[in-house]
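Morning!

As promised:
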Amino acid sequence: MQSADAGKEVRGRAVSTRNDRQLKTIVVVMSLVIVAFFALAGRCVYLQRNLADYYAEKCMIQQRAYLPLEPQRGAILDTRGRLLAASHQIRTIFAEPRIIQDPKETATRLAPVLDMGAHEICKLIVDSSNPGYVSLKKDATVAQSEAARQVYGVGIEYDWRRQYPMGRLAAHIVGFTSRDNYGLAGIEYTFDRDLRGRGAKHTFLVDVKRRPLALCLGEEQDDNDMPIHGAGIILTLDATIQQFTREALYAQYKEFEAESAVAMVADPYTGEILAMVTLPDFDPAESAQIAQKQPELFTNRLLTDQYEPGSIIKPVVAAIALDTKVMNRYETIFCENGNYHGKGFGRIGEYRRGFGDLTLREILMNSSNIGMAKIGQRLGATRLYEGLTLFGFGRKVGVELPGEAEGLLRPPGQWTGYSVTRIPFGQEISVTGLQMLRAFCMLANGGHLVHPYIVKSLVRSDGMVVDMRPSTLRVGYVIKPDVAKWVVQDAMTAVVNERNGTGSRAKLAKWTVFGKTGTAQIAKDGVYLDKAYVASFIAGAPASNPRVVVLISIRRPNVALKKGYTGGTVAAPVAATILEKTLTYLGVPSEGTPEAAAAIAARRAQPYSEDENSW
Amino acid sequence: MGSRLSLILVIFFFAATLIVAVYLRGANHRAFYTLRTYKIEQGRLQQDLWQKQLRVESLINPASIWRRLEE
């Protein structure tokens, strides 16, 4: 019994000892668990408080991929929708040298794909100054891109390249862009913001192989918009008329070995510029090289070159004189037989021969300087200045192209005794070709103010069309319509169509052309240069209802060639060629036919009757 | 016995739901990837077409026609 009790006691003690041990083990384990828990909790707090940003960023880099989407630059089109400038996508195959372990092997794999020597590729990778990027092949084909993509460390980059399908034809108007697609000249520069559009960036959630799984929305949703492509711009320019103009001007520019030449064609009623040519010109695709060698080729001389217009300003002054009634069209002015001098205005001669009594029509037809000087004296400084200001001289026309000059028309307070007799035949005043053309548009359209423009409309990427044409609302006349009509249909028509007219080389069989020649001496540092002239001719047709007005100015034709240097000889034939081709192209009926009469009536009845009634 | 069967069914359907959810998620990602691939392909084809149009434009514009007539 005793031994049984003793056995029980021993067993009981053993159980108790085991329980104690288990308890201790549990306590130790639990303590370790608690310590570990607190350690982990501490680590969590530490990570959350101190390293959260670091790991969040790492996580973002690991899980996300970004795709920048560059917008396509808008196209520039002529009035009939023909492309003058457009961008297309190009693929550039590039390598990331820092992650390429074996450049030789990479080069060997790429060589047949890129159709380049392995040695050349290897050299590009090894010698790259940028460890993150080296361009291997620009303008790669789709097949090349797909094959190159399979090689580790090689990627494809998409970019836009600007293309000018018509080359140098409209280079001065369209302009060109930099390599990073920023407009640097012409319309490309003026409308750069509209043409460029707005880029976007897409953020993707990616898998381990960097394949996109989903778009990351939420706070970055704004970034995931689609890019807004640049707006398209439609010009008033007609590539066909531009070609006629350039072709005719270029032939004469070469023939007379001139320093430069400009030509412009416009609709006198609306102010639409149909053609604008400056020679010498340039190919926009080579603008980067030209910028270094001959940057002067970028100058659009119709806007930037200011020159003394010479006799082509005479019809404008004649119109001012008639409008202000300082003389009428029947009275005669004695032209001093070619030698007019007096105190305060020096000596004035004629270009060809002296004249006696001339009517205003004859003064214009014979381009008499003395006759015009006397008209200037009758007008006086104030009326002459105000008249020229009304025609827009001395201030910018405001066409949508960069670099336009204001010209020079000094206020009457700064005029000398010479000014009032010299300005009427185009000296002591500087104009741009555009200003001159505008003034003639006003004469041709019956004395209405007109605003020349070259951008017709803007087409946004969502299809919305923004009309950019200036208002054609007629608010009055610069000169009386009957004065404008007489100057155009009588005086300037005589310049071209009468036997003694200075512009007879511009005469056409099908249409009555009106115009005025000009031969201005070039001044440098206040002195007129010997044998240096600007030969100009400004014309329009048909005289009864002008559809187009043309300005031609050829600077410094080579006098030594002895082919001539005057506006009537050098510039008038160019105007005739342009007018003939343009009027045929526009389908203007020959004058004198019933169709022509109907067209005149329709034109007069149609465009401005509503506006005229409203004032 | 009945309650055990119910438990098995619950676990089974719960597991099935999870598997289907995971599958649908994967399918969504695959569809998205395919969509992006096609979108890129569409953009590429559009650009190819545009490039061809540009080439045509550069062949039929008045300047190049005149050049060829002269030649």
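Chain B touches chain A through 19 residues (CB under 8 Å).

Hope this helps with the figure draft.
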